[in-house]
Write the structure tokens for this entry.
Amino acid sequence: MERVKTAVVGCGMISNIYIKNLKHLFSIIDLAAVADINRTAAEEKAQTYGVDRVMTIDEVASSPDIELVINLTPAFAHYSIIRQMLEAGKHVWTEKVMTVTVKEAKELCALADRKGLYLGVAPDTVLGAGLQTARRALDTGMIGAVTSGLAVINRNQSLNAEVFTFLRGNGGSLPYDVGIYYIGALLTLLGPVQSVKAFGSPAPVHTPQFLFRNADTKPWQIPGSNVLSAALRFRCGALVSVLFDGNTVNASQHALTLFGTRGVLQVGDPDTFGGQNTLLYADQPACALPFTHGYDGKNTIDPTPFDHYGHRGVGAAEMAYAIRKGRRNRCSKEYGLHCLEVLDGMERSASTGETVELETQFVMKPLAPGFFSGFMGGSFRADAESSLME
């Protein structure tokens, strides 16, 4: 099968794990170039990871041999980058969220359809061992019909924005930056959301506390709701309570639990690829579920910062196989649009006090089970990539 010639646009912190995986983990990808508005950053990544070409963003768009563009820029830059690449005839995989508004996301989806191009959207942690195992537990009836659920995550997002300054812009609030992993996981497990009812609070005006006290001291306020408490009604009938709190402290109290007619499933951390799932039955001890799938987040490649992001790029690789096979990719534009509409619906409901009915839908086929990332204690690569082919 011909490899898909690929360029990475955006050489920030997340690019390390993406570039390493695209270079060494997925045989369907031919990583040919990197680009960044800061050329020095792109040159450093190219030298570190042995990428042949450093290009400008315009050069990537005009290059006749680049088929697929991996967009790792901040969320507020997504719309312009994705539109430019789609108009240039490139397939695009983008980090979350697709854009910062539903209107822009719908425009990009329509453009991709008109051009006959693929547009894939993170989070692709939903293709990891943890969430695919959880999906299989539900699909095989281990907890019966899901009746309700709970999803919770907390951070001090304003403090985090002292370090990661892109969080001060649109798309930097906790629901969009981290809550999206929980929304993506819920959609993967339960399917589309029908309606949303929510309450919200803004981020406080923040003055740097200590990390950069002698540098940037100008106060800022992260746009949008930084706390959202919502009730989601899924089309499958499940009712899920969601709490995203970015106005508290960095002492993560994440939870993702699904309650069913036969049992309870405690789902592993959806911000990782290898979250451990636990099955609870009445009058029985808790049971940790062994993984039924690969991409558990454990890499044998030389470590670099943020390697806890594990198998980032698996969604792009799965889409590359979809391109070659002519089938729908799993982390599709419809999935990405629905993720965004759920978040936007929570924001709108919190603002108006009304229940928001969602318009979009999506379908995500699970990966085939029985393929794994490693064997002999993880020392050797196994056959997980085979699960991405069909």
Summary: The CA atoms of residues 193 and 234 lie 4 Å apart. The chain has two domains: 4-125+311-333, 126-296. The chain has a mean pLDDT of 94.
